[in-house]
Amino acid sequence: MVKPLTEEEVNSKTDPSVSKQWDETTPLDDQFTELYKMVDGLKGGLLTTIRPGVGPVSRAMAVAKRVGPDFLFLANKHSNKFDDMKNDKTVQVTFQDSSNMNWVSISGEATTTSNDDPRIKKVYSKGVNAWFGDLGDGVHTGMPEDPRMTLIEVKANYIAYWKSQVGTAGMLKEVTQASLTGQVADTGVNRQLFDKDIQSARATAEAV
Fold it and tell me: Using an 8 Å Cβ cutoff, are 48 and 60 in contact?
C-alpha cells in the first residue's frame, strides 16, 4: 500500500499544481509583448474599485488607451466609481477572452483628472458620446469639452495573466489525459509581473 504523504510533505514547493504554476523561463520583454497583444485585442474589460461598506465593485469599461503597462479610461465624473476612488485609489482591471480562456488581472492605483486634461481629446473616439448623452444645453454634449468627461488613469503595480497554448481539441485532450494519469494538465502558461519590472516597462513606453 502506498503510504499517504504528510501535510508537511505536500506544500507550495512540492505540490506540482502549484510549484509549476508560474512561467519563470520566458524573457520579460516577451512576457510584456504577449501581455500587450492580449489586452489590445480585447479593448474592454472590468474596472474594479473598492466601495466602503461593500467591498469590490466591478463594471465594464472600454480602454481609451494603453500606455505600456498602464491604462486610460474615459468616464463620467458623476458616476459612483469616482466616490470609490476618492476613498481608496486601489483598483483592478481584468480582461478575459472566452474564445481561448486567456485572462489578465492588473492591480494598481487610479488617479483621476479634470476635463482640461489635453489627453481627453487625444483618446476620444466616435461613439463615446453615446455613453454620456447630449443634455441639450450646448455644454453637456458628450463631446470632449463636456465637463462631465474625465480620465481615469490606472498605473499597474502587479500583473498576472494566463495564456493558452493549445486549441479547444488540445485542451480537451490534455485535461482528459491528466485526469487518467494523475498528472497536472498543461494547457498554457501563467505569468506574473512585479512592480520593479512594471516600472521598467513603463519607462520604456514613456521614452517612445
Answer: no
Identify the band that residue 6 occupies on the pLDDT scale cut at 50, 70 and 90. confident
Tell me the HSE value of 104 on the side-chain side, using a 13 A CA sphere.
24
Cell of 172: 480537451
Q: The whole model's pTM is what?
A: 0.87
Is there a contact between 87 and 93 (Cβ–Cβ < 8 Å)?
no
The pLDDT of 152-159, averaged and rounded, is 98
Of 167, 117, 172, nearest to 147 (Cα)?
A: 117
Give the max Cα distance, the chain: 81
Residue-wise pLDDT for 17-33, tens only, equals: 676 678 889 999 999 99
Cell of 106: 492588473
**What's the CA gap between 201 and 208, in Å, rounded?**
11
Q: How many CB atoms lie within 10 A of CB 154?
A: 24
Output the CA–CA distances (angstroms, integers) from residue 50 to 63, 84, 93, 95, 149, in the order listed: 20, 6, 12, 18, 22
Provide the residue type at 139 as one letter.
Answer: V
Cα 59 to Cα 156: distance, rounded to the nearest angstrom: 18
| Sequence-ordered strand ranges (E) for 38-181 | 44-51, 55-62, 65-67, 70-76, 90-97, 102-112, 149-164
Alpha-carbon span 201 to 195, nearest angstrom: 10
